[in-house]
Amino acid sequence: MAQFIRYTEHGGPEVLTPVEGPVPDPPEGGVVVEVRAAGVNPVDSKIRSGRRGTRDFSRPQGLGADAAGVVVAVADGVDGVRPGDEVIVHGASGAYASHVVATPDQLVPKPAELSFEQGAALGIPAGTAYQVLRSLGLREGETLLLHAGSGGVGQAAIQFARTFGARVVATASPANHDRLRELGAVPVAYGPGLVDRLREAAPDGYDVALDGAGTDEAIEASLELVPDRDRVATIVRMADAADLGIRTWSGAIPSTMGPEEVRLRAEGVAEAARLAAEGRFEVEISGRYPLAEAADAQRESEDGHVRGKLVLVP
Ligand SMILES: NC(=O)c1ccc[n+]([C@@H]2O[C@H](COP(=O)([O-])OP(=O)(O)OC[C@H]3O[C@@H](n4cnc5c(N)ncnc54)[C@H](OP(=O)(O)O)[C@@H]3O)[C@@H](O)[C@H]2O)c1
Question: What enzyme category does the UniProt record give (predicted)?
Fold first, then answer.
């Protein structure tokens, strides 16, 4: 039997229920992956609560886009993937499960250097960080202002920016400043006086800003410190971006990404895996929950202070 986390109505974490069912068959053109770990992303809670995406509740809904595991079944005619392959899964549907269905373009080979938990942590965070920084054109020698540097997206963004040759000044609570330094960023505490501290941290100014916090403070500091609004993005305040004249992208329904951004998100996952295999990209797992305790994992995520990633373990 397989296990799945399902919900039948929008609501708090308590609507998430573990259920059992048969192991799925691979659909035409697809594979089935036995999940060893699934990534918990803030968007999962937003979808569950009804704040993002729409759901057809004529049948129970699954949750979760990211996982890592072992391929156990492959549909006829699918080339390049075999049972036994260890893979990272991104952009899937229903990854909070013991088994998830995916298409080959949602798979990246898992390097031996990464654990399954670390592999499960890459999808949305690495894909988003890479896509946004590439879409904003961050280049060698430039300075990035990054809000929420210690979360999943933030840690990935620092590391990609450093590989691009950029400097990074990132906000986090003081308890996480050592972690930001380890990753190569200059840490700055958010809160009153933020703009002054940011000016001091980068006296020559900022070229690009990425808001992963969604606070007024983060948006206002970005607008004040980055001269070109075309190089300021929020991945949280999607609805405000057009009025502010800044950039935004969303991977959740309704997606606001064009084909190039979709391509960059997939490339970001593969690139993070490649760099990790070379020891140039770290993935911090700060908490793991049994699959059946997905509701507790989402409660911790919703507190808004996850460092690195939370994962579910079937
Ligand atoms: N648009 C998209 O396609 C897209 C894709 C991915 C993520 N997102 C969104 O981006 C946000 C970040 O995602 P994530 O996966 O990185 O979340 P996460 O892993 O849960 O990280 C949250 C981080 O926010 C920091 N934080 C909390 N309050 C803050 C504040 N006032 N100022 C600055 N930082 C603060 C926390 O750091 P401290 O503990 O140090 O306070 C924590 O490390 C979420 O809202 C998520 O839904 C959007």
Answer: oxidoreductase
Query: Which domains are assigned to the chain?
Result: 2-122+283-313 (3.90.180.10), 125-259 (3.40.50.720)
Cβ–ligand 1 contact at 126 (below 6 Å): no
With a 6 A CB cut-off, is 120 part of the ligand 1 pocket?
A: no
Which residue has a Cα nearest atom 41 of ligand 1? 173
Going from the Cα of 215 to the center of ligand 1, the distance in angstroms, rounded, reads 10
Taking only the tens of pLDDT, the chain with its 314 residues reads 999 999 999 999 999 999 999 999 999 999 999 999 999 999 999 999 998 876 678 889 999 999 999 999 999 999 999 999 999 999 999 999 999 999 999 999 999 999 999 999 999 999 999 999 999 999 999 999 999 999 999 999 999 999 999 999 999 999 999 999 999 999 999 999 999 999 999 999 999 999 999 999 999 999 999 999 999 999 999 999 999 999 999 987 667 799 999 999 999 999 999 999 999 999 999 999 999 999 999 999 999 999 999 999 99
Cα(263) to ligand 1 centroid in Å equals: 23
Residue keyed to tokens 């020698």: 141
Question: What is the residue with the minimal CA distance to atom 21 of ligand 1?
Answer: 151
Query: d(Cα 184, Cα 173) in Å, to the nearest integer?
Result: 16
Rounded distance between C-alpha atoms, residue 232 and residue 185, angstroms: 18
Distance, in Å, from the CA atom of 295 to the CA atom of 308, rounded to the nearest integer, reads 19
